[in-house]
Amino acid sequence: MSEMTVLPEVLVIEPQVFQDARGWFSESYSVRNLKLLGIEDVFVQDNHSFSAKKGVIRGLHYQRPPMDQAKLVRCTAGSVLDVAVDVRHGSPRYGRWFGVILSAENKKQLYIPRGFAHGFLTLEDGCEVQYKVDNFYSAEHDRGIRYDDRDIGVEWNVDVPLLSDKDGRLPYLKDCDRDFVWRKP
Q1: How far apart are CA 160 and CA 121, in angstroms?
Q2: pTM
Q3: Which among 77, 91, 134, 174 could disulfide-bond with 41, CB atoms 3.0 to 4.6 Å apart, if both were Cys?
């Protein structure tokens, strides 16, 4: 099952969960089910991050073409506010963001296509986030946007986040290269 968002290309996916006295079972990834949602990406790499503390922000990250990436994100321990930002110049939603709580409990996933930046905030200690990408990591193409860019206005609701040095030095969206251009469908 999927849910549309304020960014129509970004989807919240809720896998079916089967529960009984033993616990639960869910298909966390199914090419067939993704194709039914119109997602044709071929994922080539799994990434797994652990954040020890509440209040960690990772992002907002993306890779520029030709190494740009679509992502399928889920939280397997704890909970996070997961965020996508449209960075496609000319898009009617350029600079707009969408966020959803992903947690080990709700098992929701967020599909983020190419042309969107991605980041998350840990809402509790001990969070693990796992995500599939459809292109390999490339340090040369690695880019990002400041988490606190006022022109985007993500509502993180954290006063003093824990950031990497790299994320603390990211540029504002207005200062980024025009790596993605929106094309009217």
Answers
A1: 12
A2: 0.94
A3: 134
* Proportion of the chain in helix, strand, coil states, percent, rounded to 5: 10, 40, 50
The CATH class of 2-180 is mainly beta
Active site annotation includes 118: no
Q: What is the pLDDT of residues 136-174, one digit of tens each?
A: 999 999 999 999 999 999 999 999 999 999 999 999 999
Alpha helices in the chain (DSSP H): 31-36, 165-168
Closest residue by Cα to residue 132 from 31, 45, 28: 45
pLDDT tens digits, one per residue of 42-96: 999 999 999 999 999 999 999 999 999 999 999 999 999 999 999 999 999 999 9
Of 62, 111, 118, 131, the catalytic one is 131
173 phi, psi to nearest 5 deg = -55, -40
Give residues with Cβ within 8 angstroms of 5, minimum separation 6.
11, 12, 98, 100
Q: Under a CB-based contact definition with an 8 Å cutoff, are residues 26 and 108 in contact?
A: no
Dihedral sign, Cα of residue 73, residue 74, residue 77, residue 79: positive
To the query of whether residue 61 is one of the catalytic residues in this protein, the response is: yes
Q: Which residues pair with 131 in a beta bridge?
A: 47, 73
Catalytic residue (one of 29, 61, 137, 172):
61
